[in-house]
Each structure stands twice: as C-alpha cells, then as structure tokens.
Backbone:
C-alpha cells in the first residue's frame, strides 16, 4: 500500500472517530436535558463534552449580567476553577465578548496573537489560547450566552465542528427555556394557592363531569362550617346551593365535554 493510500485511510479513520465523539456528546447532553437536569449542571456538562468531542484544551460558557453590561464566566473546562462565577469583564463594542454576542455567525479566530478585530481578554491569554471560536446560545430576546471553544495550539475548525457546537448550544437553549417555563408555572401556582388557601370570606371548589366535588379549599369551614374532607367525593348540592350564574357555566361545560368543544366561558367557583 502506498504512503498516500495509508494517509487517506488514516484521515478517514480520524474523521469517523471525530464524528462518533460528536454524536456521543450530543446524545449525552440531549439525555441530560430530557431528564430535566438543573441548568447549572448542564452548563458544566456541556463544556466537558465539547472539549472532549473537539479535542480542545479549553471550553467556556459566558453570560451577561442582568443589565447586559458585564460578561460573567458561568462554566469552564481547562480554565482555573476559581474563575467560574467570579470572572467578570466589560462588554464594549470593540471587545471580544461584545463582538461575540453581536456576531450572527460563529466568530472564528485562527490566531488570537494576530487578531486585530478586538482586544483579546486576559482570561484567554493567561490560558495560552491560540485558536478558537464562539457560538451564541439562543435566548428569548437576547442570547442566553456564548459558548467558547479554544485550543492552545494553532488549528482550524471545519464546518462540522461549528455545526456540532451550534447543536449543543441549541440543546442548552431548550433546557433554559424549559427552566424559565417551570419557574413561571411555580410562581403562578404559588400565587393561586395563596389566593385560594388565604381566602376567609369565600371558598373555592372543583367538580368533575358528574358534579362530584374533587377539591374544596380550607376556607369552606369558615364559610359553611364543613371541612373539605367532608364534602370531597359528594355532589355539591348536598351541602350548598349553586350560584345561579353557575348554571350557564355548567351547561356549557357539559356541552363541551360531550361535543369536544373548548368553551372559554367564566364559571363562578366561589361561594360566600
């Protein structure tokens, strides 16, 4: 076998190994996201997986603070652990992070030592970084953050490397969006519970299609003298009279359940 054929075979083997590492990293992170892991743990896992898959020495995730003026280091691999969540720098337009956040495409830097578009952060210079690129992590209005991939050796990054990093960033964005939704739901549920459980002059109840009570707030005792446990499992009419306005809601609810229509009508579910 000629030397050129050996080289081609070696290149193909290396390419296949690289593709396998990327596929494995994506599968691992996707699994972690589906399991509902905490976003901070996902950030730490992402920088580890990306570093291993792309065979680079450093990887980091940066986010801006609440006012979007400063950049904070949220997770890192290959950098001093003491810098995580302690490093902060400005986000000027002519700075590296300012450009990374505003750049619509991956910001690729072949050689930081010869870069003229921005000032290289001391964080990267101290780590001996030579080459790298950044990918923005999508957010609702502004980017959730920036994923940075860095090598201490001068090297190039091909299209597959950039697509892989973008896919990992998209998974993080999905996880962050889920976290925000869950947080909003918890706050909404808390406000509802405070309203329901804190009411003393009214009580709230929920009944099924047969008008059997499935829930009654604790304030039922203050209003009518019944404990919730006494009425749950029974029809409400055995204990109290329905608000006349509820009959309209009941008829609409029954019709919706029967015909499959989603009626958006007000139903009074409190008594006083």
Residues:
């Amino acid at each position: 076998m000629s030397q050129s054929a050996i080289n081609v075979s070696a290149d193909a083997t290396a390419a296949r190994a690289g593709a396998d590492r990327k596929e494995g990293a994506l599968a691992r992170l996707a699994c972690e996201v589906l399991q509902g892991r905490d976003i901070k743990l996902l950030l730490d896992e992402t920088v580890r997986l990306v570093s291993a898959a792309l065979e680079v020495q450093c990887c980091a995730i940066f986010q801006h603070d609440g006012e979007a003026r400063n950049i904070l280091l949220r997770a890192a691999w290959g950098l001093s652990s003491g810098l995580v969540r302690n490093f902060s720098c400005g986000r000027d337009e002519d700075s590296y992070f300012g450009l990374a956040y505003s750049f619509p495409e991956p910001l690729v830097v072949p050689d930081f030592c010869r870069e003229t578009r921005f000032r290289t952060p001391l964080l990267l210079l101290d780590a001996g970084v030579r080459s790298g690129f950044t990918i923005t992590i999508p957010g609702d209005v502004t980017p959730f953050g920036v994923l940075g991939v860095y090598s201490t050796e001068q090297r190039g990054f091909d299209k597959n490397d950039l697509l892989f990093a973008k896919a990992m960033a998209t998974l993080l964005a999905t996880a962050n969006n889920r976290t925000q939704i869950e947080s909003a739901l918890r706050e909404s549920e808390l406000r509802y519970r405070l309203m329901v459980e804190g009411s003393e002059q009214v009580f709230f109840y929920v009944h099924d299609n047969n008008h059997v009570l499935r829930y009654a707030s604790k304030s039922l005792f203050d209003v009518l003298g019944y404990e919730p446990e006494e009425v749950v499992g029974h029809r409400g009419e055995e204990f109290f009279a329905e608000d006349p306005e509820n009959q309209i809601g009941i008829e609409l609810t029954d019709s919706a359940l029967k015909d499959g229509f989603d009626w958006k009508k007000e139903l009074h579910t409190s008594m006083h």
